[in-house]
């Protein structure tokens, strides 16, 4: 129980650091959580710590370290036969592979995650997987497809957190701008500004604008 409480405390602090972009501190806390999980935690704790560490390392630009953490997380989830955890790990792996410059592998990872999300009726997983595929299409110049996939990602789940919703909307705006669909941009930009202000994610709006 002491291990569980310490793990939760450090994990919550690491997540708080990540939300305000103090990524080095977030990663340090996630490494501590992983050490605790390896020593006396559950497999669920170990999976969560590996996932959070993988995300922190990716945001720091340490893509190889991110992929290593996520690969281990996928092994843990597979051994536990936790389909939702497998899907979530695959979605995160897709993002890491995309940043690694491996779009074909990233697409396969996103598609596997989406398939699991549909079978499990996990709308959050469907949303993140669709957004990943949209981002790939945008990068590869398939802007019309990207717009449709971003719309599907935002419609798939009512439980998308504010930051992810802003990121999806920002991606859609970039795709519309690349298409030259100016008639729809003003409305979408106003929506982005409103959503970002509400969720205190002004950095996303500033990046797009």
| Helix-and-strand structural type | mainly alpha
Q: Quote the beta fraction.
A: under 5%
How widely separated are the two ends? Answer: 48 Å
The percentage helix is over 70%
What general outline do the C-alpha atoms trace? globular
How many alpha or pi helices? 11
Secondary-structure element order, as H and E? HHHHHHHHHHH
Low-pLDDT segments: none
- Quick check: average pLDDT? 91
Please tell me about this protein's structure.
The chain is mainly alpha-helical. The chain has helices at 2-19, 23-40, 43-60, 63-80, 83-100, 103-120, 123-139, 143-156, 162-179, 182-198, 202-208. The longest helix has 18 residues, at 2-19. The radius of gyration is 17 Å and the shape is globular.
Please write out the topology.
Blueprint: H1 2-19, H2 23-40, H3 43-60, H4 63-80, H5 83-100, H6 103-120, H7 123-139, H8 143-156, H9 162-179, H10 182-198, H11 202-208
Helix pairs in contact: 1-2, 1-3, 2-3, 3-4, 3-5, 4-5, 5-6, 5-7, 6-7, 7-8, 7-9, 8-9, 9-10, 10-11
